[in-house]
Every structure is written in structure tokens, then in C-alpha cells.
Design goal:
Blueprint: H1 10-19, E1 25-28, E2 36-40, E3 46-51
Parallel strand pairs: 1-3
Antiparallel strand pairs: 2-3
């Protein structure tokens, strides 16, 4: 942790989505082993999606990279 991040709980995230009439928070720049990860609510519905596009980050994480394609 580089002490430059903010952390939000489920309550704040759900409130943000409802207030802004959104369905999902999509975020990046956090290493995920599979390249992506869904953070789910208690009911199993996705709340946020983390995408990390750099495979084998810094030649040490051995993670996969992912991309997100959005279409109509």
C-alpha cells in the first residue's frame, strides 16, 4: 500500500451506485491473479469489477492480464 488510496465499504459503494443510477463500479490498477475480479454484495450480485491489464506485473506476480470490452 502506497498510502495513496481510498477504501470504501459495501454500504458506501451501494449508495454511490443508487445515487448515480449505475449498476456496477469498474476499477483498475490492482493486481488480480486472473486479470479481473468481481466484488459481490451479500446477495451475490456484482458490486464492482476490478480489471488489471498487465500480465506478470513487475516480472514477479505471475498474474494474468485482462481487458474489458463494452458494447451495446
Amino acid at each position: 500500500n502506497r498510502m495513496c488510496s481510498y477504501f470504501y465499504g459495501i454500504g458506501q459503494s451501494k449508495s454511490f451506485l443508487e445515487k448515480n443510477k449505475l449498476k456496477l463500479i469498474i476499477r483498475g490498477h490492482e493486481v488480480e491473479n486472473t486479470g479481473f475480479k468481481y466484488q459481490k454484495q451479500g446477495n451475490g450480485r456484482p458490486l464492482a469489477l476490478t480489471i488489471f491489464s498487465a500480465p506478470n506485473y513487475c516480472d514477479s506476480y505471475r498474474n494474468k492480464g485482462a481487458v474489458l470490452y463494452v458494447s451495446e
